[in-house]
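Researcher: We're teaching a course module on how sequence relates to structure. For the next exercise, students receive a sequence and then see the predicted structure as tokens, so they can try to spot secondary structure elements on their own. Here is the exercise chain.
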Amino acid sequence: MHVPDGFINAPVSAAAGVAAAAAVAVSLRGARKELGGHPRAEDLGGDRLAPLAGLVAAFVFAVQMLNFPVAAGTSGHLLGGALAAILVGPWTGVLCIAVVLLMQGVLFADGGLTALGVNITVMGVVTVVTAHLLFRGLRLVLPRTRGGVTAATFVAALVSVPASAAAFTLIYAIGGTTDVPIGKVLTAMLGVHVLIGIGEAVITALTVGAVLAVRPDLVHGARGLTAPLKLRVDGELVDAPKLRADGELVDAPKLRADGELVDAPPAPAGTPAPAGAPATRSPRKFWIGGVVTALVLAGVVSFYASASPDGLEKVAADQGIDAKAEEYEHATADSPLADYGVKGVESARLSGGLAGVIGVGLTLAVGTGAFWAARRRGRAADTGARV
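Model: And here is the predicted structure for the students to work with:
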């Protein structure tokens, strides 16, 4: 759903740019807690999420290259807002999508530069906020299990895509460059993006479910997801959610000792850790595996992506939204990576694969650098405030 130059007039594009810049600025402040640049960040899981943020941005970049067919002559691709919000938190999620859109617009001529604010607002802010709020609401009513998290993820991702389509339609109603019936545009946008949303939901739920299976401590949205404490009784591990101490039921791992509640002793060797407990393992292996996966998706699998126009392109062509888009030449149309190919490389397979690998690498580097800088700046600011 990358909006090109020429769809939205200059005043509204500028206003959207200001709104997007404000959203990024606010997200930078909020991301301090999520990325570990705040005194309470350890409690919030920030130290475990910081290494994941750059990887999420690179993964979203890679998966956005994989257009999948949704209807005759129409394709869709991951927007990624729900995935980013659930994996690394809403504030960092907005930054992840902003980094991806910036790299795509500047290096690959994908999405207009004058429309960058529109794209960040529609594809980043709206998807992240919608998915985050819906996900949190569903977590309150669904079982506090991995299955409950995955189900909430599916619904949040599904709804986030038509919400983004509706947001674009609203912006177009205010600043569209062609005179077309907004009702028809809204109907067409919602119709195709509900179908795209199903694909988004499947991809997002599978990805979050896979991370939950191997490193649940790295999933921001799974905080509080715990397994019952295990105690060894007569050589057998049993669930012990409650223990009776001095006639009173108390939550493990607190026990009453001499009239005082104290931490329970460590579980016996071999006892599985609670699913939501802080990890002592380094995320390095997980990070390497994620990077390799993103490189394979962008460098190899992307060659088999659908070549059909995506939802916005199809609706724009059918409804006449793109009537004035041809008047605008993308500012980076001469980029050596424009249109996801490497200039000078004749083989389409090799050209696209190399462009994907380069894009993943650059997005990973820029994203990780920006997230660590935000983290360090947050810690420096807190240190200065305490002094």
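Model: If you want an answer key for the exercise: The first strand starts at residue 68 and ends at 71. The beta strands are 68-71, 74-76, 230-233, 236-239, 242-245, 248-251, 254-257, 260-263.
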